[in-house]
Amino acid sequence: MTDIHTKEQGQQQSRWHVEPQHQSQHWTTQSQRQWNEPRAHQVVKAATAAAVGGSLLVLAGLVLAGTVIALTLATPVLVIFSPVLVPALIAVFLLVSGFLTSGGFGVAAATVLAWMYRYVTGEQPSGADTSDEVSHRLGAKARDIKDRGEHAGRGGHYGTAGVHTGGPGGGVGTYV
């Protein structure tokens, strides 16, 4: 029994020692691959990155220069036509915002009407159970308020703290 137990421990220890060596060999292999990569391939990668980066930098400079030139040429035209352009831009803004608002309200109305149609036909649209619960609560609260009003009108007394109820003495100064 002890021989088997010792043998099993020896196998476990040897497995534990083999696995880290195997992992380190794996990592060494990956790093060796990186370092053994042909030097020409690394140079081509660097040259391509520099060429693309430089091209984009030149393109950004050209766009900036074109923008400055266009603004310089357009400024006198904008100044001359500004009494016409500013009111025109305001009118266009108002028209666009009006049409977008109208469209939004139209979509909202169509959605509400479709929901109401599904609710009335019994399809149980989303939120129908919540609206039923709210309507039952409102109805119960309305009946409760009506009952309290009728009871208070007859000189009754409800045990609600801080609420003036008509009581002896004509209801003057009677608080619960």
TrEMBL record:
It is found in: Lipid droplet; Membrane. Residues 1-34, 149-176 are annotated as: Disordered. The lineage of its organism: Eukaryota, Viridiplantae, Streptophyta, Embryophyta, Tracheophyta. This is Oleosin. Signal peptide: none annotated. InterPro entries: Oleosin. It is a multi-pass membrane protein. Residues 155-176 have a biased composition (Gly residues). GO terms for biological process: lipid storage; post-embryonic development; reproductive structure development. GO terms for cellular component: extracellular region; membrane; monolayer-surrounded lipid storage body. Belongs to the oleosin family. May have a structural role to stabilize the lipid body during desiccation of the seed by preventing coalescence of the oil. Probably interacts with both lipid and phospholipid moieties of lipid bodies. May also provide recognition signals for specific lipase anchorage in lipolysis during seedling growth.
